[in-house]
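Comment thread on ticket #2218

A.B. wrote:
> Attaching the input chain for the structure job we discussed in standup.
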Amino acid sequence: MRLDFPPKHTETIGAVKIHSLQKIYEIDSGYNVNSKIQQNNNSTTAFDNRKLSKKCANMAIVIPVKNEKLSLLEGVLSGIPNECLIIIVSNSQRTPVDRYAMEVEMVKQFSQFSNKKISIIHQRDPNLSRIFHKINYTSILDQHSQVRRGKAEGMVIGILLAKIQGKKYVGFIDSDNYFPGAVNEYVKIFASGFAMAESCLSNVRVCWRSKPKIANNKVYFPRWGRVSEHSNKYLNDLISYITGYETDIITTGNAGEHALSMSLAENMEFASGYSVEPYELVNILENFGGIIKGSKSAHKDNVEIFQIETRNPHFHEDKGDDHVTSMLQESLSAINNSKICNTEITRDIKNHLLVLQQKTNQINSRINGSANNHIMDPIKIIPIDKFNELVIDSPKLLHLFNTSES
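C.D. wrote:
> Ran it. Output below, let me know if you need it in another format.
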């Protein structure tokens, strides 16, 4: 993969470096290329397939799933490079039709033909809830001592399973993508970002080139999704407030496709549900930005945030206006509830959500700017050997196909 490097601009806030959006010039730059391609302006870097393959071998791709079409999920699996470990965390229904059992059977058959390394688990399995209770990681549990149903909870479970397998990187890809070629590009973007990183604390975030829509029998390609447009704005307002200079550097506020180095992932807090992606940026700024007294700005390593624009469009399942509204509420609430959010931005977010409520006529809705997001503790507090032991002792909990433990 060849992209512009170094990035054109970097915002530095304490120990956090946020790189501006980078452009891809070649999705596949071949084998045996020099790391730095000499050009007139010396402005691009290429990572050959061998180097990307090594990064992929150290990477787990986590796919949160909820009642997805099996053929759609299979397409996503087909786009992930064979070197990666795939971890599916399902929140699909078990009754009256056991869709999870259907997913397990599909994955079993697919792995036999593809020889891919795949693990699959159900996040609401009572055995998993008991394990979290035993190791005293209760921030992932609801009032009934069950793992909450949110996407973020599935991601945390995926990170833990990747850590058990000794992976250095963990990437997240949504299960509703119609283009397997786009999925393949996402993973190459993750690998390229980690290859560029100088720090062991790194976050690679994908910015979709476009999200195709069909209207009046024509396809058009809007640049921003209905949620990203707003979360990007308020995150940039937050950074502008911190630095004193207006910026538009954030383009990946709701990047469902993103990746974390394990060294960073295990030190982060995660917000529940769909607030997880913008809260990752907020949490990094809170913990490493040097803004809050006692934060880790003196850490020997910086946190590097890469934002890379795809060449493939992002075409995914349309889950309706209610889904978008819920995502927007949770995303903006995560920004609003931040310890570093000032009163002016808080007022703007609350007004935005009030207008949203009026537009959708949700008179009894819970849309508001002060809604609390559940925050999960960093997974570094979990005794990982004990967690691994308890998972192994629950033989029906985790299904393994073509992995070292299968």
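A.B. wrote:
> Thanks. Noting for the ticket: Residues 343-360 form the longest helix (18 residues).
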